């Protein structure tokens, strides 16, 4: 278990500001945030590479705030891997065990087990410069896991890999976490990566942890405009009035929507995730919310299409190619956008 309490750290113009974060034993926790938000600094404070100006770090019920990095039993995989270039991959993996004085038989057993788990047994006698990015990353992961750390911290472990290698290594990271029961904090900026791996995730902004929850909670129920837009919910609208008894809300501009559990009060925003909006030529009779629009443009995003809809309520919808083709709709057509009441989420402005 990792417990970060009221962590503060000033580094020039940047600062961590009162971060509280608890990661349970065996949990896979992903930290997401824009560049410069403090993701790497947070990891380096947990490892002890930076000493906190204020606050505490606890590991498995023991305060480690003032311990040196090597005394914390934390495995750390930095973004650039940092394998020693002048020795073999085997020697890299052995390194932390050797400096701890482990017996040769145990070292050999540990290297064999980790190299088999990560599929790098055939690479052990090669030096890092002869390895691909994915192979180096597996080696760095094996080295971090060799001393059986209480916690594994990884900074953008998949960011420098091609899509195929990234998918393979993501599966291996999940397997390592589940098979070894290791508590993991994984920093990234890739939403698909976070959804695939995280038990829970945290969003960090300007040195503050602004929301923590399961991937579904954070992506579908953001609690601020920043989080909503950061996780791709680009349909965000000011709310003028809430009719609590009928579960209706009125947006700026006069459009009325039905929401399942609207908040009460002033100063609210409403959001609808793009992938929860269906588009078609006919207005569906069973939908709670139906908006007449014109399909202004279709943006090809590779794996999906992004539809820009103009009308009383301008919306963005995301559809697969197959789903869009089945509608028979083309740019410029009048269409109906529909979505469930559960898809309308309210939060304070």
* Terminal CA distance: 34 Å
Query: Regarding CATH, which class of the largest domain?
Result: Alpha Beta
The shape, in one word, is elongated
Unreliable residue stretches: none
Structural class call reads alpha+beta
Strand order, sheet with most strands: 6-7-8-3-9-10
Would you identify the CATH H-level superfamily of the largest domain? P-loop containing nucleotide triphosphate hydrolases
| SS strand fraction | 25-35%
Number of strands: 20
- Round the mean pLDDT to the nearest integer and report it: 92
User: What count of helical segments does DSSP give?
Assistant: 9
By CATH, the topology of the largest domain is Rossmann fold
Helix content: 25-40%
Rg from alpha-carbon coordinates: 24 Å
Concise account of the structure shown:
The chain has helices at residues 39-47, 89-99, 104-118, 133-145, 163-180, 191-197, 215-220, 225-230, 321-327; strands at 2-11, 14-23, 28-32, 54-59, 62-63, 74-77, 151-155, 183-188, 200-205, 208-213, 235-243, 248-251, 256-258, 268-272, 278-280, 289-300, 305-311, 315-319, 334-339, 344-348. The protein has 349 residues and is α+β, with helices and mostly antiparallel strands.
Q: Topology, please?
A:
Layout: E1 2-11, E2 14-23, E3 28-32, H1 39-47, E4 54-59, E5 62-63, E6 74-77, H2 89-99, H3 104-118, H4 133-145, E7 151-155, H5 163-180, E8 183-188, H6 191-197, E9 200-205, E10 208-213, H7 215-220, H8 225-230, E11 235-243, E12 248-251, E13 256-258, E14 268-272, E15 278-280, E16 289-300, E17 305-311, E18 315-319, H9 321-327, E19 334-339, E20 344-348
Parallel strand pairs: 3-8, 3-9, 6-7, 7-8
Antiparallel strand pairs: 1-2, 1-4, 4-5, 9-10, 11-12, 11-14, 12-13, 14-20, 15-19, 16-17, 16-19, 17-18
């Amino acid at each position: 278990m990792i417990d970060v309490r009221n962590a503060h750290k000033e580094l020039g113009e940047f600062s961590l500001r009162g971060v509280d974060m608890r990661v349970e034993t065996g949990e896979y926790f992903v930290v997401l945030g824009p560049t410069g938000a403090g993701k790497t600094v947070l990891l380096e404070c947990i490892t002890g590479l930076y000493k906190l100006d204020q606050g505490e770090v606890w590991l498995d019920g023991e305060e480690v705030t003032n311990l040196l990095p090597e005394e914390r039993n934390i495995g750390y995989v930095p973004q650039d891997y940092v394998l020693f270039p002048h020795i073999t991959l085997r020697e890299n993996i052995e390194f932390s065990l050797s400096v701890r004085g482990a017996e040769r038989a145990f070292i050999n057993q540990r290297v064999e087990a980790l190299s088999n788990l990560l599929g790098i047994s055939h690479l052990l006698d090669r030096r890092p410069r002869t390895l691909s990015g994915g192979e180096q990353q597996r080696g760095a992961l094996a080295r971090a896991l060799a001393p059986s750390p209480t916690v594994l911290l990884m900074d953008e472990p998949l960011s420098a890999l091609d899509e195929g290698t990234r998918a393979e290594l993501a599966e291996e990271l999940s397997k390592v976490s589940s098979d070894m029961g290791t508590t993991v904090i994984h920093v990234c900026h890739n939403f698909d990566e976070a959804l695939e791996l995280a038990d829970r995730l945290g969003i960090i902004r300007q040195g503050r942890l602004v929301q923590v929850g399961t991937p579904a909670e954070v992506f579908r129920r953001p609690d601020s405009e920043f989080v909503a837009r950061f996780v791709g919910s680009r349909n965000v609208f000011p709310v003028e009035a809430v009719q609590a008894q009928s579960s209706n809300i009125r947006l700026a501009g006069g459009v009325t929507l039905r929401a399942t559990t609207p908040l009460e009060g002033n100063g609210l925003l409403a959001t609808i995730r793009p992938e929860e909006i269906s588009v078609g030529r006919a207005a569906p009779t069973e939908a709670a919310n139906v908006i007449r629009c014109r399909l202004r443009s279709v943006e090809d995003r590779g794996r999906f299409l992004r539809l820009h809809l103009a009308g009383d309520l301008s919306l963005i919808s995301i559809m697969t190619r197959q789903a869009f083709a089945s509608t028979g709709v083309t740019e410029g057509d009048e269409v109906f956008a529909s979505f469930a009441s559960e898809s309308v989420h309210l939060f304070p402005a």
